[in-house]
Amino acid sequence: MGRKQDLHKAVSRRSVLKYGVYGGLSAGLWLGGCGRRRRQELPNIVMLLVDTLRADHMSVYGYGYWGGAVGGYEAPTTPNLERLAGQAVVFKRVIAPSSWTKTSMGSIMTGCNPSRHGAQGVKDVLPDGLTTIAEALAEQGYYTIGVNTNPWLKSIFGFNAGFHTYHTLPCEASFGSAWDVNRTALELLKQAPQGKPVFLYLHYMDVHSPYAPSRPFFSEPPATIPGLGVVPDDELDILYRQKGLDAPGVVPRIIKLYDGEIRTVDAAIDQLLKELQRENWFDNTIVVITSDHGEEFREHGSIEHGKNLYPEVYEVPLIFLWPGRLPAGVRISAQVRSIDIAPTLFALTGLDVPKSLDGKPLLPMENDRLPDEVAISAVGLNDCIPDLDYVAVVSREHLYVREKVNNVVEFYDLRSDPGAQQNLGDTDPKAAFYAELEAGTVSRKTTEQVELDEETRNQLKSLGYLR
Asked: CA distances (Å), 112 to each of 130, 266, 376, in order?
């Protein structure tokens, strides 16, 4: 699509968008050929991003009911999303662009692979040259609102591009709660101009470490750790994340805390959607629920995320809901990508899908109608791994990973080894095919950089990112 000139200069990423400035509208909607829509019939869009949410730890994806992953519960972790799924389209296999927020969100917001935007390091800024979801929608008459509580996505890094209102919650701790995000969003919606469709993007951080689920979503007594005795959960979190404690029982307990956090945000999403329904927002609203990356619990020796590219950190959820317009209760098994979200929204709202995007519209949303897509994911040159630079090529059958600084290749057959535990190395004859796909990606872009202010630096330190 590119950035518009003259009339559309008001929508530049560094300027404040002026209410009422928009370009021409292509309002035909993909609705099985039901024709074009007038401007006032454009759907509202609610995009809910749950940071650090693994798909395989959500009961809507089967977690807990049949044993699930390690630490699986009999009780569901996402009961509200399960009910929602009966009205929605659930994508069963979704590959994130990165295992780190800034890189992943840069791709989700632009629909482009990480090498196209290059926002990979601590000081990197999302570049001007790519059109974000919010910019494209604002140009077409949407009023755009963002509520964020992740310090990596502050305005200084360019993630306010295209938003009329972009609010990062102030907080003394690492991040604000989902309830605070909801409260702020509902207040900002009341201030939105009447008669304009709204794009509302909310970024929840409750599933991110430190692992501290809200009551009543987790109320078990503290764990007993061999050699340490009874350890309160807040102390265990520090010992696990900062001191590397790996005693028996530690990881299962941390997983239980993580799952409790998922229950917390599941309840918060339910609260938000009920409030929107009370305000008649569901008459014509697209809801998208997804995540930027997952979380590792020593499956490959590491903890948290942003250090490698394996299934536990790149498989994320994706749910689309548009009551009465999209199919209900459909589960799509094809492998899709987070970069497909932007072009799908453009197609559903009738905008022309920019040819520059790497993603594709996920249409039609019918089971077994979509092809598998090969995904590109990248992480590295951040403060967690400042001297390593990983790129992965993920198909349904295989995982190819190359660390570019040292040119080390890993290769896995996901059909027989879905957890990617048996590295076949670059000697496997199929690895050469994926090496060619990786070589075909655009080289990493050089981006603008910004110095971190003290508040941002302290927030990132509290989250364990900065040394």
From this structure: 8, 28, 10
Q: Tokens 């609102």 label which residue?
A: 145
Cβ 252 vs Cβ 71: under 8 Å: yes
Write the pLDDT tens digit of every residue in 194-246.
Answer: 989 999 999 999 999 899 998 888 888 999 999 999 999 999 999 999 899 99
For residues 199 and 134, the answer to whether their CB atoms sit within 8 Å is yes
Domains and CATH numbers, the chain: 43-371 (3.40.720.10)
Pairwise CA distance, residues 199 & 163, whole Å? 9
- The count of C-alpha atoms lying within 13 angstroms of the C-alpha of 408, restricted to the half-sphere facing its C-beta, is 8
Torsion (CA) 63, 66, 67, 72 in degrees, nearest 10: 30
CB atoms within 10 A of CB 119: 28
Alpha-carbon distance of 24 to 7, in angstroms, equals 10
Total residue count of the chain as it appears in this document: 467
- Tens of pLDDT, residue by residue over 239-283, are 999 899 999 999 999 999 999 999 999 999 999 999 999 988 888
